[in-house]
Design a protein that fits this description.
The structure is a single chain. By secondary structure, the chain is of the alpha+beta class. It has a domain at 3-115 and 186-258: Glutamine Phosphoribosylpyrophosphate, subunit 1, domain 1, CATH 3.60.20. Helices cover 20% and strands 28% of the residues. It has helices at 14-19, 27-30, 71-76, 127-130, 135-139, 146-159, 164-178, and strands spanning 3-13, 46-50, 59-63, 81-89, 106-108, 111-118, 183-189, 194-198, 204-207, 212-215, 238-240, 245-249, 254-258. A 7-stranded antiparallel β-sheet has the order 3-2-4-1-10-9-11. Strands 5-6-7-8-12-13 form a 6-stranded antiparallel β-sheet, with helices on one face. A hairpin with a 2-residue loop joins strand 5 (106-108) and strand 6 (111-118). Helix 6 (146-159) packs across helix 7 (164-178). It is globular, with a radius of gyration of 17 Å. The model has no long low-confidence stretch (mean pLDDT 93). Bound molecules: glutamine. The site of glutamine has 16 residues, from strand 6 and helix 6. Residues 1-2, 39, 90-93, 96, 102, 115-118, 145-147 line the site of glutamine.
Amino acid sequence: MCRHVGYLGPPVALDELLLRPSHSLLEQTWAPKDMRHGGTVNVDGFGVGWYRSDRPEPGRYRTCGPMWADENFAALAPDISSGALVGAVRSATKSTPVVRTACAPFLSGRWLFSHNGSVPGWPESLAELVEKLDTTRLLNLDAPVDSAVVWALLLRRLDDGQPPADAVRDTLVEVVRAVPSARMNLLLSDGDLLIATTWTHALSVCRTDNAVILASEPFGVPAAARGDSPGTAGEPRWQAVPDGYLVVADRVETSLVPLPEIELRDP
Ligand code: GLN
């Protein structure tokens, strides 16, 4: 299953955060350690969205194919620095196309979104929920993939003005109610917040005195994000997030709230 990373902190070059650390997102393409529920590598594409100080909307790069094979990204990454980003490497769910537009992060306005998981039986299993989406949203789906439908359902809530953490929670609940076997580790950012869920997949959090990182798998924290107060000397600590949690982090604090018990419909 895909791997994703969200970062808020001092500006760091994309290669310093995603390519060079020990067990970086790059290494997680061929040697992930905690995939769970199938999938062995994450080679069906990747994407990075990064927030910029001179424009409201983030920049984004997505491509299909393994991250290690993209010489252009490796060449550009040292020249792009950001204090907030979302990155993901993809392991395509069965019966979905391996195309650039199916790769996270999905983007709208300031929002960046990634889904680590799958919705079995889609699109039929999501038919009832898809009826809530108007034609424009359906025609603008990035790709015929379950994650793009989950993103459309979440974006509808965000566009309606629902607070983002509530919108993420409620989207997870509505999808799991419709498809109880759905795997739903979600990650959303607007450049000031990281909002994530754990629903059957791995996620860890690392907070230093000047940065916070949420990631499917822990990796070496770059020097710029380590902070320099005496209390954080040495390798920063990663903490595994238990299953069934909503994580909300900004530059100052992180909160972990259990997701609600989900009442499943009678079969
Ligand atoms: N279902 C999504 C996709 O294909 C995410 C897959 C994953 O987490 N492995 O692309």
